[in-house]
Amino acid sequence: MAKPWERYRREVNPRLAKNDPGFVAHATRFADDLVRSIAQGMTMGYGDEIAAKLSEVTGIGGQAEADDYESLVAAERERQAEIPAGIAIPGEVAGAVAGGVVAAPRLAAGAVRMAPRLAELSKLPKWLKAMYIGATAGGLYGSGQAEEGERLAGAGAGAAAGALTAGGLYPAVAGTRAAGRRIGAAGRETFMPERAAKRALTKAVGQDELTIGRMRARLRALGPQASMADVGGANVLGLARGAAGMPGPAKNRAMQMLTTRAEGEAVRIEKALGKGLNPRDYFAASDDFVEALKTRAGPWYDEAYERFRSVMTPEIRRVLDTPAGRKALKTAATKMRNDASLAGQPTPELTAALAEARAIGASKEVTGFGVAEGLKLRTLDYVKRSLDDQIETAARAGKPDNARILRGLKNRLVRSLDKATGGKASPYAKARRIYSSDAEVLGALEEGRGFLKLDREVIRREIDKLSPSAQEAYRSGAVRALMDKVNAAGDKASAARRIFGNTLLRGKVRELFPSQGAYTEFRRAMVAETKFGETQAAIGAGSRTVPMSEEVASVQSSLGNVGAVLGSALPLGGHDLVRAGIGRRLTQSLIGGGSDEYNQALARMLFNRNQSMNQRLLDVLEGSRVPTKAEALQIDLFVRGVLVGAGQQAGGAAGEVINR
Predict the structure, then answer these.
(1) How far is CA 138 from the centre of its chain?
(2) What's the Rg (C-alpha) of the chain?
(3) What is the mean pLDDT of the chain?
(4) Strand pairing partners for 372?
(5) CA spacing 20 to 30 A to 607: which of 365, 387, 520, 614?
């Protein structure tokens, strides 16, 4: 008598069975065995009882001549026992898995209602989940296999047996599954690199819990310089780092894109500042303002100095009699001597009177230049400027009272000079107004360059007290200060972080912008540049992954040689060099790092600033199902099916033991 496996081999192979007259009967028997096994698995061991009940109700398909339920159940179980294990076990396992698929929609609806509890269950260790799967399948199947009255005991014994069996098998099954996936991934990376890269990117996006819509929004927010490596989370960035870390074309592409983008950072920052603040070139503006001081106010000063060569009033004399006035006059006299000019215009009458006094012995004073009735306007203007210097010195020394007193003294002198030279319409008053305006602008330009040394509130007050033209000059100086810091950044450092890297800096920069909208646009540009810097820092040179990647590449090269030798010996047909190449590439992919083609495909996807291509890639990813983080924590369908089958068989055996 032929062994069962030989008989079934003949039954399913027409070429071997064409001379066997019982082939149709055997094939029918095989199909019936397989259907019964699948049904038994789908119903978790209750298939025989369901079939018996249907036969009792309909009178069709019974395995016994009697039509009572107990006899029909016994006959069904006897028929079930005749099925060879080679058909029964795979069929029951397949039925159990198929039943789970059929029940998936209802289970999903229930999962929505039980989402909070399932979220907690998803955090359980996988080995515990495996035992739970085995216990569930074993308990149900043990209950189905047990006799009436022993259902509960069968369920308990089946659950225990299923849990122990599934828990014990899980490490081996999971390891086998992981190895199979690694082999499959290696094959895809070697022979279908583009598809493998898209699959890996889809998985990384899911692990980062990102939606395609959020990635689109991030691309738009970061602007035309953005790449997919910038808009993903830690897992997408890790994928990019892995592709760029292996020596080869992929690394070259990644580093070229990152380096080129970093080299243009200063230009982009300057453009963003210019758009929001509209500054002038600092040095050109400084030259223009200095020239304006000379050309605009100069002619009016020259006219006033020429017209008023002797000025003196009682109020001016009182100002000059103060300690500050005497100090200022001494400084003014020194400046006049340096100009090779007299402090006053000699008066003939006074000069003659002094000569007569010396002749009669009434005076011994000798001037050498004669005697002036008053001082030149130029001299008094120097006195005014000397008082300005004293005021500034007192303010810087933290002596506000002294500065206030000196400012009052200067104002008395200025009012007296205006009155003595013709009032506000005089050339001196007009020259001073023009000079004051131009000097304010020049001073604002210089003060703006030092704005980073000030507190945010002080910056706001300084800008508010300036005229509109001086405010523009202040912002031009501030932009020069910011660009000095940007240009001083190292080649591998983020320039944006130097001027926008903390709350204190951001607050100071905010005060420069005339409107919130202008600042918001600049801030968006700085956020993008900061993100680009973070991407480069994570992927570029200096990362701890670089030497590790080089070691992996070295191991890949060595083991690739071994794979080439093994591949050439495989009975695959074709030329030895072809088989050796296949062996090398598969071996290199198996140890990690991916093939060159796979890494290049990833690099094309992740390090691309063509926004149209990035959007098309997102369209492709949107068509792929992105697994959620919770799903990634679950046991996959293959392993679950094996565990269900193992738990089912263990539970069924336990149920039969209960029957004895």
Answers:
(1) 48
(2) 47
(3) 75
(4) 346
(5) 520
